[in-house]
Amino acid sequence: MQNSDFPNYFQASDTASVKAQKYYLNITRIDLLSMILASALAIYSYQSTDSKLFVYAVSGFLLLLSLILTIILKTKKYEDVWYQGRALAESCKTLTWRFVCCSEYFENSLDLKEAKNRFVERIRELSDEFKDLSIAMNSKTLNLPIITDKMLEIRAYNLEARKDYYIKNRIEDQKKWYADKAEYNSGKYNFWFWIVIISQAISLISIVFLIVNPEFNWNFVGLLTTISASALSWLQLKQHQELKQAYTTATQELNFIVTLTDQLTTEDGFSKFVLDSENAVSREHTLWLAQRR
Questions:
Q1: What is the rounded distance in angstroms from the CA atom of residue 103 to the CA atom of residue 173?
Q2: pLDDT tens, position by position, 131-172
Q3: Cβ burial, residue 150 (10 Å; 0-12/13-18/19+)
Q4: Average pLDDT, whole number, for the chain?
Q5: Cβ neighbours of 112 (radius 10 Å)
Q6: Highest mean pLDDT among 10-19, 58-67, 220-229
Q7: I need a surface site. Which of 36, 37, 47, 108 has the fewest CB within 10 A?
Q8: Inter-residue contact 162 to 97 (CB < 8 Å)
Q9: What gap in Å lies between CA 170 and CA 154, rounded to an integer?
């Protein structure tokens, strides 16, 4: 399913989350780079008064920029919109798959009108739960249908067609996404951790060199320690290691679940299968969200 095939609240919250994440990470990058550049200006001990004034002025500007960006992050609350938007979007997605697959609470035995009423009511409950997010969501997107034509089309499939569609477009797609993200986060974790180790090691070497040569005018210690601290801050923000573990666990769990597909010959069996699969996906997201708070 494409994003446009999901309910309006999924589309609006997903877009709001992605936009807030982009703003938050970009501002944080600039904030950290400003501090690194400010520390870089202090590596040489200038003797000229004009040179000192220039360095102090530029350093002051960079530190002021860093302060302003920090205040923006605090007041705009991009991080809250990012997390809440992701939570609402994933909740809407899980409900959608349960609806189209006739899983628990939206069983195939229900009249279509009743199933639609139940789905709309659950979406309304979610929107009330995340009502603070409404200001960040696009009003035009919210005017789109709650139940799309594609959702009704898939729900009307027979059992075998629904099963094949769900396994291919939800389970297999989600497994691949988790596996790719686990590998990506593992690589990023190793990269940034090596940045920390190397910068700290070179900083230690620089200190020893300055002890032996106290008259030397170049001092890289401040720059290197700032780089190390910034890399650690970025690691804490992105949580690559924690995400890698969460994605790997979710991949393994879905892999175990998908092995049972050959046994799915009844509506009740498929309903339970979808519920177990969506709970596995929800656990990964719940763990991620808990780690971000």
A1: 19
A2: 999 999 999 999 999 999 999 999 999 999 999 999 999 999
A3: middle
A4: 89
A5: 11
A6: 10-19
A7: 47
A8: no
A9: 13
Please write down the HEC assignment for all residues of 3-30.
HHHCCHHHHHHHHHHHHHHHHHHHHHHH
Distance (Å) of CA 58 to CA 18, 29, 34, 219, 270: 33, 19, 10, 18, 64
* Residue 47: both structure tokens together: 């003797």
* pTM given for the model: 0.84
Kindly state the tokens that stand for 131. Answer: 């009502």
CA–CA gap between residue 37 and residue 54 (Å, rounded): 14
H/E run at residue 251: helix 240-258
What is the rounded CA–CA span in Å between residue 7 and residue 143? 10
Q: How many CB atoms lie within 10 A of CB 284?
A: 21
As a whole number of angstroms, the distance between CA 42 and CA 115 comes to 66
Q: Which residue has the tokens 């719940």?
A: 286
The owner of tokens 């050959």 is 262
Domain boundaries, the chain: 1-156, 158-293
